[in-house]
Write a structure and sequence with these properties.
The complex is a heterodimer of chains A (353) and B (314).
Chain A: H1 3-27, H2 31-52, H3 57-80, H4 86-107, H5 109-112, H6 116-121, E1 131-134, E2 137-141, H7 142-160, H8 162-170, H9 172-177, H10 182-223, H11 227-252, H12 256-274, H13 280-304, E3 310-311, H14 315-319, H15 323-335, E4 340-341, E5 346-348
Antiparallel strand pairs in A: 1-2, 3-5, 4-5
Chain B: H1 3-13, H2 15-40, H3 46-65, H4 70-94, H5 99-123, H6 134-137, H7 145-164, H8 166-174, H9 176-181, H10 186-205, H11 213-227, H12 231-255, H13 261-279, H14 285-308
Helix pairs in contact in B: 1-2, 2-7, 2-10, 2-11, 2-12, 3-4, 3-5, 3-11, 4-5, 4-10, 7-10, 11-12, 11-13, 12-13
The chains are: A mainly alpha (353), B mainly alpha (314).
Chain lengths: 353, 314
Amino acid sequence: MSAPTIIMITGALVGASCGLVGAFLVLRRLALMGDAISHSVLLGIVLVFAIFGTRAPLPMTIGAGAIGLLTVALVAWIQRTGLVKEDAAIGLVFPFLFALGVFMISRFPTTVHIDVDAVLFGEIAYVPLYRLELFGRDLGVQAFWTLGTMFVINLAFVGLLYKELKLSTFDAGFAAAVGMSPVLLHYLLMSAVSATTVVAFDAVGAVLVVAMLIVPAATAQLLTRNMPVFLGLSMALGASSAVIGYYLARAIDGSVAGAMATVLGLMFLTAFLLSPTQGLVALVSRRKRQRQDFLRELLVAHVAAKPDGVPVTSLHEDFGWARATTARAIREARDQQRLRLDDAGVLTAPDPA
Amino acid sequence: MTPLAQLSLDITWDATLRNVILGSMILGLTSGVLGTFAVLRRQSLIGDALAHAALPGICIMFMITGTRSSELLLLGGALSGLVGTLVLLAVTRWSFVKQETALGLVLSVFFGFGILLLTRIQHSGNSAQSGLDRFIFGQAATILPRDVAVMGIVAAVAIGVVILLFKELKVVTFDPAFAASIGMRPDLLGVVLAGLLVLAVMIGLQTVGVILMVSLLIAPAVAARQWTTSLAGMVILSGIFGMASGVAGSVISSLVDRLPTGPMIVIAASIIVIFSLLLAPQRGVLATYRVRRSRARRFRAELALTDHHGVSRT
């Protein structure tokens, strides 16, 4: 398999995994918790490496994932003291843990064996070099195994607990009333986010994971209101950003992870402007349409109230509308056969009967 | 010579160290003062989006002008930070994407775009680029006397505005509806505060960097809140805490080799927060715990007394 293909598949697995768990973060209004987790997981990665001297995926995911959960618990605890509001609590915890991580990296680079660039945008270009070997046999690219496993776990998590996740997301009170445990589900979801972030770290670094978590879901949200479609779309957008991002990065000779985030941003912008139902263009034209409909109805009602009809020339003055607006309203009402214009230039409303 | 004496000697004679200390004092003061309002108005994380969004502007400014001067680069950063804030406002207003999602979105996409441009510049092998990445984690040692002067002017403007509009900002922060009813413009003052936040971020990028800037807006203010109940007191204390963390972090980072400044300042600020949250005399976690325990003890004692006197306990 060629290096570009490996890089694109790796990125696509990151995008799909993050897109899936990120969808629930966005729906549950926990986007910033995803931000916080992805930053603080760095400290976990550094600590696991410094203490156990390994970068093997399993201890890394469990150890660093635990720091992600610790972040969630810490934010919750600070909020519970009532001393600090939620936004500030998040903004206190993750910079501190992230700063500790960066401090350890720059202070003990040889023991930690990660450089600061990798923190920022990962090392996806080196992914093809790391291969999984078991009992002396080459089993292929290691990232495929780790990211693939993570993707399957995430799929299984969402698939098995779909009903519970959906219910607790949209109506936590009801979910609790029918005997589910929203708190347990919350921490399960956060575990999935933490583990996914750790696994994605090598490919895209600690900071850009946030884009993979949030942006596909935010974009998909603008395109559909159907939950399964939304989840599928979020994964598909995440995955396709890797392929487009790879070519963008190659075209301008920059970081693949940065290009993926850029592509995701462009996807969101496109949906924000052009989504058929929620897009800005649709919104503006719908408002314009509604305004015009309202003017026409007003006009018809006005004319219908006058049995002798209304001279068409004075109409725009009666209402204080622009001529063009008035003309369009008259034309629409006539097209709908609801007003009649006689040769003398008088508008009348035909009897409803 | 003791390390402390050595340090004071260095400050007197070492121009770099003097710049570092002055620069980080100015930064800590400004972000502490402005962070107070951001935290009280629950807008602290907007500073985070703003700071991240500055990165592409810095890179674009460099690509256009090829300049090494920090003022120009920071101007580019301020412009794209403003664009980021506008995008944030537009997305929350014109779509049903929620504010926290929009924040994360702006922050990560702008930063990602900045990284794309930064890596492109680095790969192009332009020798003048060396050091653009100082804006990511901050590198206090690169602060020049010129930069300190610019920082001082910007900070003076920002703090001057806060002093002049103190009464207005106070009312708007605590009761925007009342402010509007007596003829103040809460929306306009909101824009003024956002503009001041941009200034604080500009001062901070060279010292703390885009990723951790938000901490200097939040941490000193949260710590200050623990020790005082007056807004003026909080603003002053927050400025002092900001200065203290700025000086502590940047001095440590310039004394030790290869230590980026931003993380050290953030660690210093976080330590102040931890102490304040736990130990503040009235609001601290320990104080609350002690009050609660002594209340419980007194209650038990009174229960025992009433039992002893045979008074019915219904």
